[in-house]
Every structure is written in C-alpha cells, then in structure tokens.
Amino acid sequence: MQGSVIRRYTAKELRELKIPLPPLLTQQQIGRIYVTALYQKYLANKQAEQRLAGVLAILRDIDETQRRETNGQ
Which residues contact 22 (CB under 8 A, 6 or more apart)? Predict the structure, then answer.
C-alpha cells in the first residue's frame, strides 16, 4: 500500500505563486456562460416541479374518484 504526501506551502510561497488567468474578457464570457447555465438549470428544475405537481394532482383526482365510486356502491 502506498502513502500519500501532502505538500505544505508557506505564506511566502503562496504570495509568490503565479496563477495564469485568461484575459478579463474571456473571464467575463466564462462567467456569463456559467450564470446562463445555472439559470437554465433553475428553469428546468422549476418545470420538473410543475410537471410533478400536475401529475400528483391528477393522481389525487383519480384516487378521489375511485373512492367515491367505491363508497357509492
């Protein structure tokens, strides 16, 4: 079995760390795409919830109708 080593960085090393970033325009485009995807996911979830609520309402109506018919006989 192999162990793992976790590298620890000093505060100085972290301050000196160079992290390459894309140009600001590219970052903004990425942000817009991400926000749009999150909103689309939100809308899809809302639509799924509404469909489920509709199905459950239909099933409740069917159940109530069957109960009435059973009790009426």
Answer: 30
The 3-state DSSP class for residue 17 equals coil
Residue-range domain boundaries for the chain:
24-72
Cα gap 38→41, rounded to integer Å? 5
CA–CA dist 70, 32 (Å, integer): 57
**17-26 pLDDT, tens digit each:** 999 999 999 9
Per-residue model confidence as pLDDT tens digits over 28-53? 999 999 999 999 999 999 999 999 99
The structure tokens listed for 35 are 């926000």
Note whether 27 and 21 are within 8 A (CB).
yes
CA dist 53 and 51 (Å) reads 5
Which amino acid, residue 53? Answer: A
